[in-house]
Amino acid sequence: MTDLQKRTLLKMAALSAVAAAALTACGQKEEAKPAAAPAAPAASAPAKPEPLKVAFAYVGPVGDGGWTYAHDNGRKAVEKEFGDKIITTFVEKVPESADAERVIRDMAAQGNTLIFGTTFGYMEPMLKVAADTKGVKFEHATGYKTADNMRTYDSRTYEGAYMAGVIAGKMTKTNTLGVVGSIPIPEVIRNINSFTLGAQSVNPKIKTKVVWVNEWFNPPKETEAATSLINGGADVLMQNTDSSAVLQTAEKMGKRAFGWDSDMTAYGPKAHLGSAVINWGPYYIKAVRDALDGKWATSQSWWGVKEGAIDMVSVAADVPEDAKKKLAEVKAGLKDGSFVIWKGPIMGADGKEVLAKDVVADDKFLGGVSFYVKGVEGKIPGSDKK
């Protein structure tokens, strides 16, 4: 065999080997790789609940130093208590008229689900809005009508008035007290009477004069009324109005007076005998907590000294020690229930008995007071009763 033939046979053998290897490779199946395990979804943080939107309708300006100022302090207490769980807003100077319904309806439309109306005159407007917005909870201050989604709350301001009376009875030199009244509803009449009863408890000679201004907040009218009372012989004044005008008038005219609803010392430091204050914070915190916890239900609440809602603060240094002692006894008795203000015998200004001896007035009686007690002079506007 020639060299050429040998080379040809070797080349053919090599090509056959390559072809065989290629065929073998084509006949093999590639083993499937195990599938990668799917990535676990990232754990998402639980959704944070939307804050509860809470709105307040105020009858006066927040800077009135009295009624509305006290309510706004309560709103601030709620913000401090609950932080970012709530959002609060307010509208001030909302008149007790058709405007009240418009404002309250707008509050509901803006997504507020808890709405506080802070004056008696909002009762009917709030009832109308409550009937149309069942998903909203309404709280009405000082009223007496409720609905499934509207409840009432109040403070026993007459307890503060009585404590003021205890001091006034000891401090007066003329035995004549003066009260500037706002609107002749049971709440205000009850406060005038309680002030008088407190004063008479330490000084039976006391008589009380009243001038009505028929508004909650009108400093010029309140000033005029206070001036009239002082000119009529009253040397210690109290008011059931919302501004500090009465105390300021007493300061200017050299007489004494009380702060009302809030501590008004700064408005008339020389005239100031003490302030009968309302602390709305405890109730507002309870109401908001009820709503947050799903425990809110219609009810009627009336809180006083016992619940921390009423107090007499910043008593003047020149108030006699026996008056301060009596005040402390009254406050302690109201707190533990051992003392009752409205307990017979109590006589009306017309000489008729309104509570028999040892009879204690219930809340229904107190809620309907429409008469003056003995010692209060004049007639109640719109009534033939003294």
Tell me what the structure shows.
- The structure is a single chain.
- The chain has 11 helices and 14 strands.
- It has helices spanning 3-27, 67-82, 98-109, 123-132, 157-171, 186-200, 219-231, 245-253, 281-292, 321-336, 363-367, and strands at 52-57, 86-91, 114-117, 137-141, 150-155, 176-181, 207-212, 236-239, 256-261, 272-278, 300-303, 310-313, 346-347, 353-355.
- With 386 residues, it is of the alpha/beta class.
- Helix 5 runs parallel beside helix 6 (186-200) and helix 5 (157-171) runs antiparallel to helix 10.
- The protein is globular.
- The strands form 3 sheets. The chain has a 6-stranded parallel sheet, sandwiched between helices.
Structural descriptors:
386 residues, alpha/beta, six-stranded parallel beta sheet, six-stranded mixed beta sheet, 18% strand, disordered N terminus
Low-confidence stretches: 1-34
How many distinct beta strands? Answer: 14
Biggest sheet statistics: 6 strands, parallel
Helix vs. strand class? alpha/beta
Fraction of helical residues: 25-40%
Instruction: Return the string of H and E elements.
Output: HEHEHEHEEHEHEHEHEEHEEHEEH
Q: Radius of gyration in whole Å, from Cα?
A: 38 Å
What distance lies between the first and last C-alpha atoms, to the nearest angstrom?
154 Å
Tally of helical segments:
11
Strand content: 15-25%
Mean pLDDT figure: 91
Q: Characterize the overall form.
A: globular
With strands numbered from the N-terminus, the spatial order across the biggest sheet is 2-1-3-4-5-11
